[in-house]
Specification:
By secondary structure, the chain is α+β, with helices and mostly antiparallel strands. The chain is 37% helix and 21% strand. Adenosine monophosphate (AMP) binds next to β1 and β2. The site of adenosine monophosphate (AMP) has 13 residues, from β1 and β2.
């Protein structure tokens, strides 16, 4: 196909905003295209040079475009600037400046030229890019140049998303949308509409079923529906698996030997950012080839507890990666397996995928299995939920035991139940230190890594635990803290302390610290406000503010009653 023909179609697409018309225009375009050129056509209409997961940056900005245009047209830069100020679009400027000859290039030739320009790199790349682009523009008609220039500048603005392309493809074969399901299934599996179109064009609709999961090509991710509460989950799924819902980065990991690639939820490659996860996969995954999914979270090596999402978020950057992996190490909580040693697992039931996943993870720091509870008891689900919240997690995800992995689908195979967002507690809480845990990781040298803290139950004259806290003290303060606590250490749990958690060292309830937290949550592991079998209350994401409050004695700590009032005030709805 001549490029000028494609331009005719692009002009038609530009002239409409009606989806149905767009679909029909695309259908005609795809019908006319050959199997070799259909992928480039799709990429170009989406302003790309390949599938989204393999981005090739054009490296053509407005300044470079202006310069190339000056060269191609023989006009000076001032004149071009002036025209641009008038029209606000280099595409139109190109059309005005360039002649109406040209029109000899094919779509594939233009595509290849753009790719050549994009791939020019290293010393002198800018000059090279400018020269190549100028040369290309010179060989095109003004109308062709209008669209060619808009592509790298991201100015096509045709509003053609993946669904419209898929429907256009269906249209090109049947004249209606009826093939969309087959096309979409193939796309969900390989994430490359160019590939799907090529197969459809060269081998027909039935061949789409042959497109299978491949290591190195991200699979569009399965997503979760919502539930109102635990009852709702049981009604929908019956006996199901309950997993923690971790709030971090969704990672789809592709492993082939020592080569590891990681893709994000929107299929961007994140391998370069998450080098610690890639290392962990190499060390801990016992498989030659595999595709697995999980959530990557930053954690505190001292307490083993996960950081809030804001902290994990800091890992989302391209610079100082080595430093960040030390400061905020990530751990991948693996929850699904899509492929293993030559075998596609997506059509296996969840239970089989999870079980196989468990069998290929060797013990280690960087990768662990997302553990689950199999149940059909709403009460048990609620308990699991509350424990998850206390551990700083977002909620839970219930999974249908016999469901396959449905790429790109949001349905009730997975159901999420999230806490409602509460934000920061407006008040701080004064707690009494009742014990401490020995440091692990970097704080091992201090021999103290986290404090077990209680509030005061003035009815029963008891200190009931509300938090395990490892954040807020400096490296200088930890040894100081340990020295003070060792002086009041006792061999057994002090009589007035009510706790389910067993610290490494118990201390007399004496020192009060002030804590900030995101909110108060229900918790089965803490005893503050606990009555009978019901869960107690805990601080979510607690951190120490300041140091020991020497102006307070233990009984001056915040009371359980106050905690209950704070909890009431913040609202306690479970689902979002
Ligand atoms: P949402 O983003 O709120 O729609 O929730 C779905 C997201 O939860 C997924 O895309 C994952 O990134 C994340 N997630 C966390 N833990 C799990 C888990 N155990 N199973 C599946 N997804 C999880």
């Amino acid at each position: 196909m001549r490029f000028t023909k494609l331009v005719d179609y692009l002009a038609k697409l530009e002239a409409t905003t009606k989806r149905l018309e767009m679909t029909a225009i695309l259908g005609a375009l795809f019908k006319e295209a050959t199997a070799d050129e259909i992928a480039p056509i799709i990429y170009l209409t989406q302003e790309r040079l390949g599938p989204a997961f393999e981005p090739i940056d054009f490296g053509i900005g407005e300044a470079l475009a202006a310069e190339a245009l000056a060269k191609a047209s023989g006009k000076d830069k001032e004149a071009i600037k002036k025209l641009y100020n008038q029209h606000g679009d280099y595409g139109i400027v190109a059309e005005k400046l360039l002649s109406d000859s040209g029109k000899a290039f094919t779509v594939t030739q233009v595509f290849d030229r753009l790719k050549e320009i994009a791939l020019a790199s290293g010393e002198g790349a800018m000059t090279q890019k400018t020269d190549l682009l100028a040369d290309l523009l010179q060989k095109l008609s003004g109308r062709e140049a209008r669209y060619v220039l808009r592509i790298p500048l991201g100015r096509l603005r045709l509003g053609i998303g993946d669904p419209t392309v898929m429907e256009g493809l269906s249209w090109s074969v049947t004249g209606d949308k009826s093939l969309r399901p087959q096309i979409e299934r193939a796309y969900n599996v390989c994430s490359d509409l160019g590939q799907v179109a090529r197969v459809l064009k060269s081998e027909g609709v039935d061949a789409l079923a042959k497109i299978q999961v491949e290591v190195g090509k991200p699979v569009r991710m399965a997503l979760a529906e919502r539930a109102k509460n635990a009852e709702d989950i049981v009604t929908r799924l019956g006996k199901c698996a309950i997993e923690n819902k971790y709030d971090g980065f969704r990672c789809q990991v592709h492993k082939r030997g020592d080569e590891v690639r990681i893709f994000s939820r929107n299929l961007e490659e994140t391998t370069a950012m998450f080098t610690d996860i890639a290392d962990g996969i190499r060390q801990q995954i016992k498989a030659k080839t595999a595709i697995l999914e999980g959530e990557a979270l930053s954690y505190d090596p001292e307490t083993g507890e996960f950081h809030p999402f804001q902290v994990t978020m800091q890992r989302k950057r391209k610079y100082d990666v080595a430093e960040m992996t030390v400061k905020f190490p990530l751990r991948l909580i693996a929850f699904d397996l899509l492929y293993l040693d030559g075998k596609d697992f997506t059509s296996q039931p969840y239970s089989k995928r999870h079980e196989t996943l468990a069998s290929i993870i060797a013990p280690g720091e960087r990768v662990e299995l997302s553990r689950h509870l199999i149940t059909q008891d709403a009460k048990e689900i609620e308990k699991f939920f509350m424990e998850a919240i206390t551990n700083g997690l977002e909620g839970i995800i219930a999974k249908r035991l016999d469901s396959r992995y449905q790429a790109g689908m949001r349905n009730f195979n997975w159901i999420k139940l999230k806490r409602s967002y509460q934000g920061h507690l407006s008040d701080t809480v004064d707690g009494v230190i009742v014990g401490y845990l020995r440091g692990r990781g970097m704080r091992a040298r201090f021999g103290i890594g986290a404090l077990l803290v209680a509030v005061y139950d003035d009815d029963q004259d008891k200190f009931a635990t509300i938090a395990k806290i490892g954040t807020g003290l400096s490296d200088a303060e930890w040894p100081q803290m340990r020295e003070l606590l060792d002086k009041i250490a006792v061999a057994q749990k002090p009589a007035r302390v009510d706790a389910l958690i067993e610290p490494d060292v118990w201390v007399e309830p004496k020192y009060v610290i002030e804590m900030q937290a995101d909110e108060i949550t229900r918790s089965p592991v803490h005893t503050a406000g606990k009555v009978g079998d019901e869960p107690g209350y805990a601080l979510r994401f607690p951190r120490v503010v300041g140091f020991i409050r020497t102006d307070r004695k233990a009984e001056d700590a915040t009371t359980v009653k106050e905690i209950l009032r704070m909890f009431e005030k913040q609202g306690k709805s479970m689902s979002q």
